């Protein structure tokens, strides 16, 4: 019958309550939610009657199952145990909230995230909206990580776009790529990303105002900055989030020594902390210029300790000295935008925009900075070049040159 989905009876555990109604395909009730599956005979009865559940219950139960599997992976469970795990006995109310697919590119995701962050504690259906944003980021990142870095680094100096959302996305992307570089479980990359998205929701609109403010923060603003991490975790909990690791990540993302924090993945928390600080250094404010990526990444490595050297080196490797979307001058006098990471940190793929005489080029010219004639001479800040770069032209250039 339309509207019903078969129940995976083989994955029901004896003695556990059923979180959904069990029905025959014609709609007859077999077992009511809240009842326990007490014997193999009851399981046989369900199988004989081809037990079904509503599509809504099936979707919510599947979400609860996914959350259970993520938690098992995060705890280091054997993958066979994860795959063979019984269906959960509890479904949260939030599992019934339909996710909202997020379509479009990086700037569309940025705009949607900005709206949610601005709404703060008043955001409606926040968890499914965040889930949609997280899925969109992972989809775009899997398609082309260099384009993700390019678009977000291009957006970072544009304070009119809303710094809070760009900062959140870029921190999440850099952190996620570093988790992958280190060969850590995907569950840690997912945890880091969803934490980065909301780590500053407790001060989202004020964060954008601060970026455009000429004077230093006053006493009230400093107090808000100091407590925004626990405020953000409280807002997240108010949305109905119950994942202890997620809440801990958000609450402690500014801790001086994340390795001492309990109830979460220490590596993911440390990488979130590093990415958050690194992106902040490379972001301009009205009151100060951005730190060039070259200096920020070098400091990232030079300030390493024995405990975090491998993490910092991996993050530096993920970005390179000249990340996609940033600008450089070349030894031939041209000014260029970085369009993709190269084989080495100091040899990115670039598109020249301005010739040696200071004239803007009508056609972007691909340059391989591994060649001496086109080697990078120095980084440039966006404010020093002031050219609107066409993503479509960059895409075509990358396609033609296979980068």
Task: Name a few traits of the molecule.
403 residues; Hypothetical protein af1432; 3 domains; five-stranded antiparallel beta sheet; 10% strand
Outline the structure in words:
Helix content is 49%, strand content 10%. The protein has a 5-stranded antiparallel sheet. Strands 1-4 form a two-stranded antiparallel ribbon. Strands 2-3 form a two-stranded antiparallel sheet. α7 crosses α13. The protein is elongated. The protein is α+β, with helices and mostly antiparallel strands and 403 residues long. β6 and β7 form a beta hairpin. The chain is built from 17 helices and 9 strands. The protein has 3 domains: 93 residues, no CATH class; 214 residues, Hypothetical protein af1432 (Orthogonal Bundle); 75 residues, no CATH class.
Number of strands: 9
Rg, nearest Å: 25 Å
Termini separation comes to: 51 Å
CATH topology of the largest domain: Hypothetical protein af1432
Estimated structural class: alpha+beta
Brief summary:
The protein is of the alpha+beta class.
Layout: helices, strands, pairs:
Blueprint: E1 4-6, E2 22-23, E3 29-31, H1 40-48, E4 52-54, H2 55-74, H3 79-83, H4 106-119, H5 126-143, H6 145-155, H7 163-181, H8 186-198, H9 204-211, H10 219-226, H11 228-238, H12 244-251, H13 266-282, H14 293-302, H15 309-319, E5 327-330, E6 335-340, E7 349-354, E8 360-368, E9 376-380, H16 382-385, H17 391-401
Antiparallel strand pairs: 1-4, 2-3, 5-6, 5-9, 6-7, 7-8
Helix pairs in contact: 4-5, 4-7, 5-6, 6-7, 7-8, 7-13, 7-15, 8-12, 8-13, 11-12, 13-14, 14-15
């Amino acid at each position: 019958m339309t509207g019903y989905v078969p129940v995976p009876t083989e994955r029901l555990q004896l003695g556990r309550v059923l979180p959904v109604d069990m029905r025959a395909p014609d709609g007859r009730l077999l077992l009511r939610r809240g009842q326990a599956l007490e014997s193999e005979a009851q399981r046989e009865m369900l199988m004989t009657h081809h037990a079904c559940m509503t599509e809504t219950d099936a979707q919510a139960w599947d979400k609860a199952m996914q959350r259970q599997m993520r938690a098992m992976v995060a705890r280091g469970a054997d993958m066979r145990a994860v795959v063979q795990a019984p269906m959960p006995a509890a479904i949260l109310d939030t599992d019934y909230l339909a996710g909202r697919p997020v379509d479009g590119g990086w700037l569309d995701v940025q705009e949607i995230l900005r709206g949610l962050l601005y709404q703060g504690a008043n955001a409606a259906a926040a968890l499914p909206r965040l889930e949609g944003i997280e899925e969109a980021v992972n989809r775009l990142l899997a398609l082309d990580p260099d384009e993700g870095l390019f678009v977000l680094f291009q957006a970072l100096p544009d304070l009119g776009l809303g710094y809070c959302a760009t900062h959140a996305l870029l921190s999440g992307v850099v952190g996620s790529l570093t988790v992958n570089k280190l060969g850590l479980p995907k569950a840690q990359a997912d945890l880091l990303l969803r934490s980065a998205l909301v780590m500053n929701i407790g001060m989202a609109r004020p964060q954008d105002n601060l970026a455009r403010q000429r004077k230093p923060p006053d006493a009230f603003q400093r107090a808000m900055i100091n407590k925004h991490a626990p405020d953000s975790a409280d807002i997240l909990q108010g949305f109905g989030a119950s994942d202890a690791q997620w809440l801990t990540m958000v609450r402690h993302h500014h801790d001086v020594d994340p390795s001492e924090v309990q109830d979460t993945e220490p590596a993911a928390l440390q990488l979130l902390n590093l990415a958050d600080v690194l992106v902040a250094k490379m972001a301009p404010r009205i009151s100060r210029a951005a730190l060039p990526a070259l200096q920020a990444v070098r400091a990232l490595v030079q300030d390493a300790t024995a405990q975090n050297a491998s993490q910092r080196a991996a993050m530096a490797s993920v970005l390179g000295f000249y990340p996609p979307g940033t600008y450089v001058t070349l030894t031939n006098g041209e000014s260029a935008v970085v369009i993709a990471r190269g084989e080495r940190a100091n040899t990115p793929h670039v598109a020249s925009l301005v010739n040696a005489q200071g004239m803007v080029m009508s056609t972007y010219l691909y340059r391989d900075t591994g060649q001496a004639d086109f080697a990078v001479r120095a980084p440039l800040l966006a404010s020093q070049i002031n050219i609107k770069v066409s993503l479509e032209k960059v895409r075509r250039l990358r396609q033609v040159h296979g980068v």
